[in-house]
Write a structure and sequence with these properties.
single chain, about 450 residues, alpha/beta, FAD/NAD(P)-binding domain, Alpha-Beta Plaits, about 35% helix, globular
């Protein structure tokens, strides 16, 4: 039994890890020349930008790669409690420094991917081939039977997993075999950001390990993010929603930082040693392909990761959801025993359930900005009204902050935030905390 995975990004590698327990041979194909170390690559357009693995994603990763947390920290990644290490500013003030009991591990995307790729390549029966571009699928009698490479080579497969990302060509491949393509939901968010790296030295960033400055919609649009990565470096990203012109040179970049409502980012880059130039990324729209409702699905073929749903990257959900989908793929294969069309539908339904909560968070937050367009989720205005009050209440009530954070990190279901006693406490604390403070009123650590 052979499985072929198209794409050696995080989604593809996690799918390969799942399939290695169920197939004698797993071949991972990627059109890039894959680097040996942790450096950005062309096939991952955002690889030079910050990536965050949510707490639940770290749990998923550690479950299938035992010891990977220690391996990441040994490679220079930084581990810290999200409540005491991450400085978060929004709605006119910083969240107070309170422990959450939940740790984040901060590393660059290339370093994380390199470590995972090395782990996957060492698995029995797994082969990773770079410089291999898939141009078509082969199939017959309602089943995908393999892939065709640009070299003309055909690889037979019992299961093909498309993990080729947002630019997936499945919308071309499937019609060639007589299958339809899924409807697509697109939310235009106009997110743009620019990143630069700096030397990281002790005592910087006012003693925090990372910082996140978020705009207060609808009138503010700009954000700032600082994360520590391996090699004693800071990765500093400036951008936001519906920004026509991101910082194009160093002077504009520095000036942009000074417009943020908290000075912590501007103060850091005014004294830190720059190590790189500026790298800009544009993300025009979140996109979700609705495979779960297709009338007819092929056997022997599924998609995963950004090939199913690509989220606004500012929320840092993509890698975590891909890890959860890989787990769902394994569980679905175990239930069905064979990659039939019914198995594919079962998997897509499971994937849709996993996508539902992060999609609601991301899209709901994006619609707080009037320029966002697309199908608006039902009850979005009420959801955003309540989300704002939870944020305000969490700035003065640590237990509310932890509950909200656990849901954001995809650990607990959203239902915990809507229990009557919890809602009553949120509304009471939100009323007690002024909705807007001056910049200078942000509490100290």
């Amino acid at each position: 039994m052979r499985a072929v995975v198209v794409g050696a990004g995080m989604a593809g590698l996690l799918a390969a890890r799942t399939l290695s327990d169920r197939y004698a041979s797993v071949i991972v194909l990627d059109r890039d020349s894959l680097p040996a170390g942790g450096v950005p690559r062309r096939g991952v357009p955002q690889s030079a930008q910050p990536h965050v693995l949510l707490v639940s994603g770290l749990v998923e990763l550690a479950a299938v790669f035992p010891g990977i947390e220690d391996e990441l920290t040994a490679a220079g990644a930084m581990r810290f409690d999200a409540g005491t290490g991450l400085c978060v500013f929004r709605y006119g003030r910083r969240w107070p420094r309170e422990p959450t009991g939940l740790d984040l591990i901060s590393a660059s995307r290339p370093r994380l991917e390199a470590i995972v790729r090395r782990r996957v390549a060492a698995l029995p029966g797994v082969a990773i081939r770079d410089g291999a571009t898939v141009t078509a699928l082969t199939g017959a009698d309602g089943r995908v039977t393999g892939v065709v490479l640009d070299s003309g080579e055909t690889l037979a497969a019992d299961l093909v997993v498309d993990a080729s990302g947002r630019g997936s060509r499945s919308d071309r491949w499937l019609p060639a075999l007589g299958f339809g393509v899924p409807d697509q939901v697109e939310i235009k968010i106009g997110v743009t950001y620019t990143t630069r790296q700096y030397r990281r030295r002790p005592g910087q960033l006012q003693g925090w390990q990372a910082a996140l400055i978020l705009p207060t919609p609808p009138h503010e649009h700009r954000s700032g993010f600082v994360m520590p990565i391996e090699g004693d470096r800071w990765m500093v990203t400036l951008g936001g929603w519906h920004i026509a012109s991101p910082p194009a040179d160093v002077a504009e970049y520095d000036a942009f930082a000074r417009t943020l409502p908290d000075p912590i980012v501007a103060e850091l880059i005014s004294t830190a040693e720059p190590l790189t130039g500026l790298v800009t990324h544009r993300f025009p729209a979140s996109r979700r392909r609705q495979f779960a409702v297709l009338d007819r699905l092929p056997a022997g073929f599924v998609t995963i990761g950004d090939a199913v749903c690509s989220f606004n990257p500012i929320y840092g959900q993509g890698m975590t959801v891909a890890a959860m989908q890989a787990g769902a793929l394994g569980a679905t294969l175990d239930r069905h025993g064979d990659p039939t069309a019914e198995m594919a539908r079962d998997y897509y339904r499971a994937a849709a359930r996993l996508i539902a909560t992060p999609w609601q968070f991301a899209v709901g937050g994006d619609f707080a900005f009037p320029a966002t367009t697309g199908p608006r989720p039902r009850g979005n205005s009420l959801s955003n009204w309540y989300a704002r009050r939870m944020a305000l209440a969490s700035q003065v009530a640590p237990d509310i902050n932890i509950a909200f954070f656990r849901v954001q990190q995809l650990i607990d279901p959203p239902s915990v935030l809507f229990r009557p006693r919890f809602v009553a406490r949120v509304l009471r604390h939100a009323r007690a905390r002024p909705s807007r403070l001056s910049r200078t009123a942000a509490p100290s650590r």
